[in-house]
Specification:
This protein is of the alpha/beta class. It has two domains: 336 residues, Alkaline Phosphatase, subunit A, CATH 3.40.720; 65 residues. 36% of the residues lie in helices and 9% in strands.
């Protein structure tokens, strides 16, 4: 793909953005950094995902080889897990992947803040949208199962996702009419009056509550404040011209009201390179759903693994498309991928529904000190991709030599690479060995 600069991108897409005057402090500010979390549902074909050797000379398995052009921008991770999760936690992976909160079979459902929402207040400053949660279906879904979002706020409150390419495009790139602006500001004024009264009344109520009820009230008020903050942020950006997108592409996006994988990748790319947001999460399909049977591939591997391959290649191909487009877009002395960190993976491990050896990789962030072109293996690899049914005692003996590395160690490393000083996240025990230079 021909390399394009951000200026050429804006010019070719018809952008007529009037940039604000920059003061000395703004001119000296650091170049933006970005984070993307992408989820791979219902597990992977382990024989075509997990490398059999570690280090920089590892061989990319067949399905991961779709990313071969991005090998030097990618690090594979195996043997890491959310160790708080029970082994049978595969379908709870969407809530666990960016949080490490440890949901699963036999565990009372709970959530905690996700990595994207932890990063967003810092790296998302100065953008129209602080963070963007995308999914195959809008809203939150069923919190106990069938959840649609992988983004969770400070108290573990789920952040509703958006699935319509049209609505996403309108939010990011369509100029509101004068009447729409007036209506929004009228609503904002009314909401602020209501919120002021609510906050005042809550002060008196808070003094009369016990500790547990005060915590619940504080959680509720935090969510209320978040709504107010989002509306105030939107008001500040309401009169700032938006990036204009090529008319043909805009027409295609405006006609797509239902989820479309290729269009979602296109929108993620546009959102990042236009600096409309710097934090995105994306869940392309539900855990279970249309191809739930493939997550039980061990019951009929001859039939189900080829079907799982089709989905694997679809999701991995979409990741490759996003990475390739970002790498082909120049930014400063490098490209957009160099300052964008993509954490990609799922909640089903090497064994079906087994959540203690998760498929994960990190792409991008070269300019942020992330070491790439290697496989970080936190387990013994001999016979790891065993075929057929494994005896329970053999499985226990083999997994005893896991180094028990939490996947959240990667979260700690990535947060620090993105400039958010972090010592602890989720069930982390420190930074992930070998991920940063």
């Amino acid at each position: 793909m021909k390399s394009i600069t951000r200026r050429n991108f804006l010019k070719s897409s018809g952008a007529l953005l009037a940039l604000p005057a920059l003061g000395a402090s703004a001119a000296k500010s650091k170049a933006p950094v970005r984070f993307v979390g992408m989820y791979h549902t219902n597990g992977v074909n382990p024989y075509k995902w997990f490398p059999t050797t570690a280090g920089p000379d590892y061989e990319m398995p067949e399905n991961v080889a779709l990313l071969s052009d991005l090998r030097d921008d990618t690090t594979m991770i195996s043997g890491a897990a959310h160790w708080k999760s029970p082994q049978s936690a595969g379908h709870s992976g969407i809530t666990n992947f960016l949080t490490g909160c440890g949901n699963g079979s036999g565990v009372a459902y709970h959530t905690s803040q996700s990595l994207d929402q932890y990063l967003a207040p810092t790296i998302g400053k100065g953008t129209r949208i602080e963070s963007l949660s995308l999914s195959w279906r809008s809203g939150v879904g069923n919190l106990g199962g069938g959840i649609h979002t992988m983004s969770f706020g400070p108290y573990g409150n789920p952040i509703p996702a958006i699935s319509s390419p049209k609505k996403i495009f309108e939010m990011l790139f369509v100029e509101p009419t004068a009447a729409a602006k007036e209506k929004f500001r009228y609503r904002l004024g009314n909401n602020q009056s209501i919120l002021d009264n609510l906050m005042e009344e809550s002060k008196d109520l808070n003094r009369r509550l016990g500790k547990q009820d005060r915590e619940k009230l504080d959680e509720y008020l935090t969510n209320v404040r978040r709504v107010e903050t989002l509306m105030v942020r939107e008001d500040k950006w309401l009169d700032v011209p938006r990036h204009e997108v090529d008319a043909k592409l805009a027409s295609k996006l405006m006609a797509a009201d239902r989820h479309d994988l290729d269009l979602m990748i296109e929108l993620m790319y546009l959102a990042l390179v236009s600096d409309s947001t710097r934090v995105i999460t994306y869940v392309p399909m539900s855990e279970g759903g249309l191809y739930h049977a493939t997550s039980h591939w061990n019951k009929n591997p001859e039939k189900l693994l080829p079907l799982l391959d089709e989905w694997d290649r679809k999701w991995i191909g979409a990741l490759g498309k996003l990475g390739t487009k970002l790498k082909a877009t120049a930014e400063g002395e490098g490209n957009f991928l160099d300052r964008t960190v993509i954490l990609y993976g799922g909640g089903h491990g090497r064994k079906p529904h087994y959540a203690h050896d998760l498929p994960a990789l990190v792409m991008g962030g070269k300019s942020l000190g992330i070491k790439h072109g290697r496989h970080l293996a936190f387990q013994h690899l001999e016979d790891a991709n065993i075929r057929g049914r494994e005896k329970a005692e053999d499985f226990r003996a083999r997994t005893k030599i896991h180094r028990k590395v939490p996947l959240c160690n990667a979260h700690v490393s990535l947060a620090n690479a993105l400039g958010v000083e972090t010592a602890k996240f989720g069930d982390s025990t420190g930074a992930m060995d070998g991920l940063l230079a």
